[in-house]
Amino acid sequence: MSTFTVAGVSTQYGITKVRFANDLVSRFKLLSKGGHSPLELMELPRGMTKSEACQYLLDTGGVYEQWSGLIIETMGKKQGTVASKPAKAPAKTAPAKAPAKPVPAKKAVPAKAPKAPKAIEDDLELEELKQLAELEDAPI
User: Fold this and answer.
1) DSSP symbol at 135
2) N or C terminus: fewer CB in 10 A for the chain?
3) Per-residue pLDDT at 87
4) Residue 86 confidence (pLDDT)
5) Residue 4 has what DSSP assignment?
6) pLDDT surpasses 70 at 107
7) For residue 9, how many C-alpha atoms fall within 13 Å in the half-sphere facing its CB?
8) What one-character-per-residue DSSP string does 10-40 give?
9) Model confidence over 47-91: pLDDT tens digits?
10) CA dist., res. 138 & res. 140, Å (int)
């Protein structure tokens, strides 16, 4: 089981997490460079597991009292007392199927050509536009 000599909490983008490390200075620099604020880390008196470190933070109190709920939740996860997601059942394998029969290719049907606009409709629209232009130019 791994042990840590540094523990604390940090907040980034509004999400607060309990942090663990073995080197206070490098961990502090890394988290502060990443925009974590507030950042509260402390050296532990000896190497501790994550659940022991959480208990130590709770016993210390001070600034860690405001995050006690988060620390207790993290401690429970690290001890394995918090219910985890149930394991998924293995996927059922489908029985082997017989190879499919080849499907005969369909004959291509030629696409219909789009209808060409009628010249009469175009002429009517052009005439209407000319009449509108004349009306706009006419004095009132």
Assistant:
1) H
2) C
3) 44
4) 41
5) E
6) no
7) 25
8) EEETTEEEEEEES-HHHHHHHHHHTT--SEE
9) 888 888 888 888 887 777 777 788 888 777 766 644 334 445 555
10) 6
